[in-house]
Design brief:
Blueprint lengths: L1 H6 L9 H26 L5 H6 L9 H20 L12 E2 L6 E2 L38
Antiparallel strand pairs: 1-2
Length: 142
């Protein structure tokens, strides 16, 4: 899934050499991007806390920075993925209904509504919270 790819924890290696090469190229590009972000947030003398947090990275993979970036931006990524989903489209599959006996379609572009307990980031925002907690479930169990 996207979160695992961004964080560099994707277990899927690909079915063939071409898939593996593409995945390796993607990870190299992500590493360059996070290297630039790392440079931007740690070069300013005012960011002592960030310098300490991201100082040690034995694999030069920017793992802590990737985790923090994903945590801060996952809802924005989800919103970007689902922003153009039209009503009645087949982007989302049917899931268990509220009564656990029937199937229902994902609604509201698969975003949590205020009535379901979702909270906006700031007052007046639309609620666009990612409706799953798959980030915290090991990949092999999904």
């Amino acid at each position: 899934d996207i979160g695992d790819i961004v964080r560099g924890k994707d277990l899927y290696l690909g079915d063939n050499r071409k898939d593996r090469e593409q995945k390796q190229k993607l990870q190299e590009n992500l590493k360059k991007i996070f290297q630039q972000i790392h440079s931007d947030v740690t070069t300013d003398g005012k960011n002592v806390a960030l310098q300490a947090r991201y100082k040690e990275d034995p694999d030069n993979n920017y793992s802590k920075l990737r985790e923090d970036w994903w945590y801060a931006n996952r809802s924005t990524v989800w919103e970007a993925i689902t922003c153009e989903v039209k009503s009645g489209s087949q982007y989302f599959r049917q899931t268990c209904g509220d009564d656990n006996k029937s199937l229902s379609h994902a609604s509201h572009k698969c975003r949590c509504t205020k009535s379901s307990g979702g909270k906006a980031i700031k007052e007046g925002d639309n609620v666009s919270i990612v409706p799953t907690y798959f980030d915290y479930v090991p990949q092999y169990l999904r």
